[in-house]
Write a structure and sequence with these properties.
This protein is an alpha/beta fold. The chain is built from 18 helices and 20 strands. Bound molecules: nicotinamide-adenine-dinucleotide.
Length: 545
């Protein structure tokens, strides 16, 4: 591994260099893909698509299961790379990225065929006319995947597997902060024996992502910020390219006084600090019922105090470095704002002093990174009118606010432009479900937190500004296909009553159709039969001169 200081100036223009955020040491470098090259990549992908879409589900399954074997053979190596490039703890890379994506892979390898099997559609009274309908699913074509850096392995890999199982080919533009993991994903598919160019990786920052959108793939799966999501949606609209947007969150956790507080405290700590708080479904706001606020806060602070922070490559570390100077600046800004608004910093509230010098790199990357470790921070006395309770922080902070009643808890939780996930903590499951169904979020857990992105079987996506469309689950698979309706008239002997020429008899038939057939009732529709016969006779007789 080279250090930052060894980079020659000419290399910097064409190379994308990846740094370990904990140490500032270079993890690797890759040549940036030019916009022209991106267009060529999409063209090649489309050529391969026409062959790949004809492969059997059995063949696709065989290859995905082989890709699983490639990952299983190198779990530690991949986890080390994820830890080095993203800063997250080594163990978390296995638990939160590798294990869930392995599960997703086996699930879609084994079930995609069943989920995409042609299916009959009930068409009500049209069936009495001898008609049948079925739905057939076609792949969309080239799927462009543009992920964020925070789950750099599991998100793009999982989406690619779903796309491939549905018969699509894939182009991935990994985040500029995690390009080497992107290359690793390409290597996994290639080692598994996927056809050349079925999965291609293009490297670079926003401009490379923009070039991919401009190259007009047939679908774009984007994961990132609301601001970039809007840009991508606007650019994609020029080619009418459909887009799935997985965007930010400000996820609330509601703790009622009857909850198991010990468990809720542990969940809050993990939910807020996992991946140094850089999960889209991190707990970003905790609302606790007033009567237990003090006790819950004390338990959370105690648990936070036990956490070891350090380089993610160590196995005994719970909280690693943040991803970038830009991200840690937002955290500092939000914590300062909480302080200025009168909230109380219970623990943390600054960059970790222990790391300030020992991890400083010789010549810091752009932005002057010296220390990307931020202490896990618990804040009490937060209220919704404080700016950082509305904006996504995406860092290791846990602001705590209180509520008195169930209605107030729901109102506070919904008082946000975001709606990705939420959790409700109570021993009363009836209340839990009642509250959950009133929360405006794509996923709501009762007595659980954060982890459901890891259940590939369930749909993932947001309400409000947290996104459009879904990944994972049946709903996510449906984003990657286009449904085709096949309609058959099994007794094609007579003309349809609604065909031309229109006549007074026709118009009277249409009136009766509207009153009877369109009611969906067989009994009412029997009253239509005499008029229908008149009309059919008229059509068979042909035009009168
Ligand atoms: P970002 O929007 O800065 O970048 C995301 C990706 O878009 C990167 O690969 C980037 O290179 C690319 N990009 C940037 N500008 C582009 C453009 N004009 N055209 C095409 N591509 C472009 O986001 P980030 O900082 O990488 O990620 C953090 C955000 O992602 C947070 O808001 C987080 O909540 C969100 N996120 C959401 C989910 C989810 O499932 N909802 C999951 C993970 C992260």
């Amino acid at each position: 591994m080279k250090t930052v200081a060894t980079i020659a100036p000419t290399e910097q223009e064409t190379d994308l260099i990846s740094y370990n955020p904990a140490t500032g040491v270079e993890v690797g470098r890759v040549k940036k893909t030019t916009p022209d090259e991106v267009h060529a990549v999409v063209t090649r992908s489309r050529e391969v698509f026409h062959r790949w879409k004809t492969t059997s589900f059995a063949e696709r399954k065989r290859l995905v299961m082989l890709a699983r074997e490639v990952i299983l053979a190198d779990i530690d190596g991949i986890a080390k790379l994820i830890a080095a490039e993203s800063g997250k703890p080594f163990g978390e890379a296995i638990a939160m990225e590798i294990a869930p994506v392995l599960d997703l892979m086996q699930y879609f390898a084994r079930n995609a065929e069943k989920m995409l099997r042609p299916a009959k559609i009930g068409i009500g009274l049209y069936a009495l006319l001898g008609r049948t309908s079925k739905i057939v699913y076609h792949p969309v074509g080239v799927v462009g995947i543009i992920p964020a850096w925070n789950y750099p392995f599991s998100i793009p890999l999982g989406e690619a597997v779903m796309a491939l199982m549905a018969g699509n080919t894939v182009v991935i533009k990994p985040s500029e902060l995690t390009p080497m993991i992107g290359l690793k994903i390409g290597e996994i598919f290639s080692k598994a024996g996927f056809p050349a160019d079925a999965v291609q990786i293009v490297s670079g920052a926003g401009e490379t992502g923009a070039a991919l959108v401009e190259a007009a793939p047939d679908k774009i799966m984007f994961t990132g910020s609301v601001a970039t999501g809007k840009k991508i949606a606007a650019a994609a609209a020029k080619n009418l390219t459909p887009v799935v947007l997985e965007l930010g969150g400000k996820d609330p956790m509601i703790v009622f006084e009857d909850a198991n507080l010990e468990l809720a405290a542990g969940a809050a700590v993990w939910g807020a600090f996992c991946n140094a708080g850089q999960s889209c479904s991190s707990v970003e706001r905790l609302y606790v019922q007033e009567s237990v606020a003090e006790e819950l806060t004390r338990k959370i602070v105690e648990k936070t105090r036990e956490l070891k922070q350090g380089s993610g490559e160590r196995e005994d570390v719970s909280i690693g470095a943040m991803s970038s100077e830009r991200q840690i600046n937002i955290v500092e800004d939000h914590v300062n704002d909480f302080r200025d608004c009168g909230a109380k910093i219970e623990i943390g509230g600054a960059r970790s002093p222990a790391f300030r010098r020992q991890n400083a790199c010789e010549e810091p990357p752009e932005g002057g990174t010296q220390n990307l470790f931020y202490e896990p921070t618990v804040i009490s006395g937060a209220t919704n009118d404080m700016r950082p309770m509305q904006e996504e922080t995406f860092g290791p902070t846990l602001p705590i606010a209180t509520f008195k009643t169930e209605e107030e808890a729901i109102r506070l939780a919904n008082d946000s432009e975001f709606g990705l996930t939420a959790s409700v903590w109570t021993r009363d499951y009836t209340k839990g479900r009642r509250v959950a169904e009133q929360i405006e979020a794509g996923s709501v857990c009762i007595n659980e937190v954060l982890y459901t992105h890891g259940i590939g079987q369930t749909p993932w996506g947001g309400f409000k500004n947290s996104g459009r469309g879904r990944t994972h689950g049946r709903e996510g698979l449906m984003e990657l296909v286009q449904p085709q309706h096949i309609h058959v008239n099994r007794i094609a002997l007579l003309p349809d009553a609604w065909w031309m020429p229109y006549t007074p008899t026709a118009v009277e038939t249409f009136r009766k159709l509207a009153r009877t057939f369109a009611s969906g009732s067989v009994i009412r529709t029997t009253a239509l039969l005499p008029q229908l016969l008149l009309r059919i006779k008229e059509l068979l007789r042909g035009p009168r001169r």
